[in-house]
Structure formats: C-alpha cells, structure tokens
Amino acid sequence: MRVGIDVGGTNTDIAVIGEEIKTAKIPNYLGFDAVFKKLSELVGEKKIKLIISTSVPLNLVVSKFDKIKAQVILFPGSGLNYERYGKQLRGAVNHRGDVVEDLDEKEVEEVLRENKADCLAIACKFSIRNPELELKAYEIAKKYYKEDEIALSHHIPVLNYPLRINTTIINAKLMKKVHEMVRAIRTRYDEIYFYKGDGGIIPYRIALNNPSELYNSSPAAVVFGAYFLTGEKDALVVDIGGTTTDFVFLKDGKPKIIERAIIGGLKSCVRCVESHSIPFGGDSLVEETVKPVRVSQPIAFGGDSFTLTDALNCLGYEIGDYKKSREAKKDGCERAVEDFVSIVAEKIKELKAEKIIGTGFLAPFLIKDIAKKAGVKYVIPEHCESANAVGVAVSRLSYTLYARFDTENKIAVYDGEATFIKDKIYGFPEDEELIQLAIDKLISIAKDFGEEVEEKDVKVLYFNSYVVVKGGIRRGKIADVIVQIEPGIREELT
C-alpha cells in the first residue's frame, strides 16, 4: 500500500489511497511519532511504501543560504579557470572518462585542513563519465567532514560543468537536513521514497545524494493532487498554506516544467514545476492587518501569535479551538481577512487565470470570496486540506538515467543518480539501439525498486552521438543518452 505524506512548515498531511481516500493532518510540533501513530491507525499492520513531499529542508536552507558556508574543491583539468566557483586542484578526467591526471592526495588534505567550512562540494568536470577522482577525494574528505556534509557532483546527470558545480553546492547545503529527516522516518519505515519538484518519485537513497531534486516538491504534489481530486485539466491551483500561498498552473492535466531553476541565487541543473508564491498564509501575523510574517502557529492550534486563522474565527468561523481565538481577539480582523483576499485575488488576475482550484486547510473558508474578488470560476475538492499528500500518494515512480556508451573501449557507463556500472558493448550500433539499451536499463532499475514500468512511460530527454575516427579509420562510436520515466499519476488510478 502507498501512503503519501507532505511535511509542510506547520503541519504534516497524510493520504492513504485505497477503495476510499483517507486523509489526516498532524501539527509538526507533535513530531514524527504522532505521524507514525496516525499512520498505524489508518493502515494497521499493512506493509506500506511511504512517499514524502516536503518544503521544509529547502525552505530552511534557502532562508539562510548565505549563512551556511560551503567549501568547494574542483578538478576541471588543465587550461580551464573555474576559480570563481571554488578551489581548483590537480587531477583530471577527460571527455571519454579516462583519468588523465591523478589527484594529489597531499594537496587535497592541505586544502581541506586549512579551509574547512560547514559543508563540502566536490566536482570533477567529467565525473558523470567516471567518478573515480571524486570518490578518492571523498574518502580523504571524510577525515574532516561527516558523510552527510559532503556532496559529489557525479550524482547529478548533467554534462554542463558550471551548473553541476552550482547544484553540488546547493546539495552540500541541503544534505544534512534531508539526512536528518530520513534517519527519523527510517526508525519506523524502511521503504521510503521522496517526491521530486517535477512531480516524480525517487527512492530515498537518490534524494540523499541529490537533495536539490526536492526543490518545489510541495507545489508539484499539490498540482497533481488537485488534478486527481477534481479531474480539472486546465486551472490555476491556489494552495493556501501556513506560511505562504502557492500558485501552480495545470495545463492539459500537467504542470508547467522549468529547467535550470535558480536556487539561493545559483542557476542550477534542477528541473521542477513553475510556481509562484506570496508570503501570506493561515499562520501570517495579524496586527491591524495581515503581515507577511509567521511567528508561530495560530492561537486556535496552541500557538501564541494572533494569525489570519484566528481572525477568521473572530468573524464567525470555527477552525480548531475557535473559542481561544475569540478570547484573544484583536482589532482589524475583518480588514486582515479582506486584505488577504485582495492580495490573493490580485495575484490571480496578474497570472490571468480563468478558473482556480482551492487547496489547503483554509480553502473552504476563503476561496469563494477570493474567486469572486478575482472574477474567476472556482472548485474546492473534497480532501482539499490534504491535496499535497494525495498528489504524492497517487503519483508513479519517476527516475532519470544518464548513459554513456563508448564502443571503441567497449564500455557502457550507467550513472542513474544512484549507481555507477560498467558493461561491455561492441561494434557500431545504430542510434536507436543505444537509446533502447538506455531505456531497457532504466526499466530494469525501476523493477529493482519494485516498480513495473512500460516502455511508453519512458521519455528520451537528450541524445548525442558521433563516430570516433583515428588515422582515417573508424574506431568506434560514442553516445550520451538521458532517459526518464515521466512523472504522472499511476495508470491504475486513471
């Protein structure tokens, strides 16, 4: 059985998809033990696959991105200047994956010892074709850093070296938080998956190595959840959370995907849904009007700050312990709610939406007025308060594989973010044959994770090949292939 959970800034949502949809919401201050207890109530002793979307690790890191200092060591090869990214060291891998200059262990030791920071990013230019130098540097670095403080670039299946360096730096800053979350959850569950920012699902081991994949995880989850719950193919999803309100477009049943997302000011290799956010939500502070600040959870849920949620209770709604909200009533409740409605409506107008799908805990209380103010149609689905978790639970595994074929040297290197394998190949295969090899390998990896994937679900993201000629003689063929199991809703649920 698959269970989706979304770890937000205020609450953790749970969704169990079976003959019926079961959802629950747990305040984060109760901790993961409360989540585990609720899961046991919902699924009993059944074996489950736990799939997690979360905005917490990335939000925490991005909010203090510059405060977390990353040491960066690079192996770009001779004649190339990447000093603006980090410290260049001796050692190089060429474009064919051959180590043409070994690293200098004493040099690596010296640099690590003299420049230690909060975390470490290691990036060799062609490491996705051979990670040998990165792995050697990693072994040395473990004397100075913990394993969850070191990021290696070969886990990112992209050739563009500057972008891969940036993404490795982002990963280094994220790793500890993601490792902490995995350790906490694996005290109870072994089979853990994470929800990616493009709407796919990856085994937790991949997220540990490449945590930037989780960027925009929650917006991706809510858009697929909204589609599953409503069947609406074209609409703007308006997700009212605790700290922010997020806006994600659905177009023909899918979100718009952006490449090379900018995270913490760094252009990265990250592929994710396009989303828009405003810093207002149910936990936003109310002082005469609504403020773009979250101090604590609402008074109605045990907090000590008067929030938008509390203001709604003072206007007649009954959310949480509404009596406590009314006891703490402040001036400006009506204005605060009206201002919030206006702010969200203006964003909807700016995005030129014609129909909205309201999600989040406060959607039933606010979306009707927001839609009226914005002049758009609206839908509020059942389970709207846990749409993120529903989206997680109904999605299928998505996996990206980078393959490098070199027939002259008779090797195939598969670096699918989690593994590095060599296998012999021969002759001058057609491009189609090499693409098929990559597809077959991807399907095989998915099966290893317990997923049955059909070839029609695999998309070729990139292909390039050329014939190697030496002395006028054709020696072999080199090809790069990137294939992906496309994100989407599981076929048995459509």
TrEMBL record:
<feature type="domain" description="Hydantoinase/oxoprolinase N-terminal">
    <location>
        <begin position="2"/>
        <end position="144"/>
    </location>
</feature>
<dbReference type="Pfam" id="PF05378">
    <property type="entry name" value="Hydant_A_N"/>
</dbReference>
<protein>
    <submittedName>
        <fullName>Hydantoinase/oxoprolinase</fullName>
    </submittedName>
</protein>
<dbReference type="Pfam" id="PF01968">
    <property type="entry name" value="Hydantoinase_A"/>
</dbReference>
<dbReference type="InterPro" id="IPR045079">
    <property type="entry name" value="Oxoprolinase-like"/>
</dbReference>
<dbReference type="InterPro" id="IPR043129">
    <property type="entry name" value="ATPase_NBD"/>
</dbReference>
<dbReference type="GO" id="GO:0017168">
    <property type="term" value="F:5-oxoprolinase (ATP-hydrolyzing) activity"/>
</dbReference>
<dbReference type="InterPro" id="IPR008040">
    <property type="entry name" value="Hydant_A_N"/>
</dbReference>
<dbReference type="GO" id="GO:0006749">
    <property type="term" value="P:glutathione metabolic process"/>
</dbReference>
<dbReference type="GO" id="GO:0005829">
    <property type="term" value="C:cytosol"/>
</dbReference>
<dbReference type="InterPro" id="IPR002821">
    <property type="entry name" value="Hydantoinase_A"/>
</dbReference>
<feature type="domain" description="Hydantoinase A/oxoprolinase">
    <location>
        <begin position="164"/>
        <end position="348"/>
    </location>
</feature>
